[in-house]
Amino acid sequence: MGPASTDRCPQARPAVRADGYLRDVPTEPTEQQQPAAHGPVEVRRSDRRRRTVSAYREGDRTIVLIPARMSKTEERRWVTAMLDRLAAKEAKRSVPGGDTELTERAGRLSERYFEGRARPSSVRWVTNQNTRWGSCTPAEGTIRLSHRLRGMPEYVVDYVLCHELAHLLVPGHGPDFWRLLQAYPRTERARGYLEGVAATARMPDVPPDVTDDEEV
Hints:
The chain has 216 residues and is an alpha/beta fold. It has 2 domains: 67 residues, no CATH class; 117 residues, Metalloproteases ("zincins"), catalytic domain (Zincin-like, 2-Layer Sandwich), CATH 3.30.2010. It contains 5 helices and 8 strands, in the order ββββααβββαααβ.
């Protein structure tokens, strides 16, 4: 689950850039606390910057460039949006962790914790899930994981996979579902990690009710 990114700025539509090219001389750099998967974030304000918001990686740090007049609320919103966009770009460029590897990983987890009974038809990364960590459609046997999970600890990704695999066997989040998910020994630890990330990013912790999709 994660905050829905937005493409609209109250003043104007910014020209989003993530190529590392810096046109303005930044002023008043500030630090923001972000989820561990993103690393440190430095926000640089510039009086010369009027209608653009851009971001780029600098080592393990992310630099976000914004207009000086932007409010703190707008700053938080745009920092989150730009982190999402950088992560999406990097996920598309990343070869390891592709759908084949993810499907094999889900198969191993099913064998280990669900006696091989949870058999998804496909498991893949997606970049359009900003309000959930993962989802599945039991009728079709498909599982989708948010690109935001990339870079998080393996036990957290395994938990989300197990969560969705369990939904292939038990729909909804009733007692039978949680008893089944107890087979994964790091469930509580992973839930605590994701809740911490959600709180930091101001993400909704409980997804809305759905009809055919089961999500986490």
